[in-house]
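As a warm-up, study this chain.
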Amino acid sequence: MANDDDTAPAAIAAPVVIWKTNPLHGDFNPGTLAGSKIFLQKIEGLPISERLPFTKSKAAEIFQHFKAREANLGSIIRSVPYEFNQDGSVKSTANILTQYQLLSLQDVQRAAFGRFGEPIAPGDPIPEPPFQLKELDPASNDEHKKLFYRRVDSNVVVANIQNCLTPSGYEDLLLQKDKFTFSNASGELEYDSAVMLLLICQKLDPSTVVGYDMLIEELRSMKLGDYNNDVDKMLTAMEQKYAYLKSNYHAPENFRKMVFSALLSGPNANYNDFIQRIKDDVESGIGANRNIDADSLIAAGRTKYTNMESQKLWNKVDPRDAQIMALTTKLKAFEDERRKPAPSVHATDRKDSKQKPADSDLVEGTQVEVWRTIKVGEKKTDEKGKVWTWCPHHKFAGKWDGLYVRHESADCPKKKTRQNKNSNSGGGGNGGTTPATDNKSASLDLQTKLKNVMCTNLCMSSEDVDKLFEQAKSEN
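Now compare it with the structure written out below.
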């Protein structure tokens, strides 16, 4: 009779429970049904019609694509060793997407050999390509299993690169494939994605060595006017620059002060009062905001701006202030124009003779050519074919007693001025303009410049500025 132990059913092993908060994080095997689904989710890229060419003009979009997926790209991208201790252990690592300036091609290739080939000791040279692909037996070798998962991570990034770039852009990157390809005797190929991504960064970034001092100076001088008075856009730019500096161990200690300065550079008085009250608390050491940090200040500044935008209060400027500024500026400009001396005749002549003969010299202390002061006849033709007339009415003590000019002697303005001291004519032989005409032209030019200033710095609409000018004219 059979023993009970012989007939007992075999025990069923309990399934292994893996605890993780994100199904896309951790190791997975694309050869399984669940692993295949995870792989497809992690490599989802841009639609074919929206893929980007491998050019510097699209650098911002390409970097944005990878940074948005950074959390799913694995440690082979976020933790590349580049400094080692004497015993060979890793001392420092860098993130390719944000700190690639710290990495050399050899640093990233050395890490690639640890995944796909035979490991290379720190300081040893990289072998000449082609690189040999190491065979793995993950089913029976725990070390090989770890390498298998790292290769899966690399293939996820390779697929992301391919699904971001246009086919021609990806082909351009493959022109350097000898730097990142590992192959075996059977023709199997593996691309190391970390090397590929480093090559992308090195090509697309305008400068492979970023000047940290330059970035700090940019933070220090940032103004709302440079961002069309958009607080959110300016703060985002500041956060990006600061994050880059911080990740490279060059974060400025006075970042909060830089944020205050930038936020107070705009035209909205109510907003500036809000920021100034926070700054007063910090400087006095008392008040609710005395210990506010840069992140909280940025959050407060952004929230206040968003609320004012939604309530249509951001672009609102007190029309009385704008009118006073407009009238004051116009008055000052007209006074400056009125005080300008009338242009001398030889100044007008200089305007007519901008194209001087190549061999001409100027009379010392003036802008008049020497040849124009030496009479050789009533008419003289220069190298450009212009005809000049000798005019005895142009005199300059110690300089010249007569001058070749572009008007007839009988029509000389100096002669007419002596004949009629009350004449306001200011033209030469080529047609003149009266001071009234000059003032009108200057006024229009001034009004255009003033309008640009008010629209940009005071956030006023073009229509509101035009109304202010019309009102100012009616009051004068």
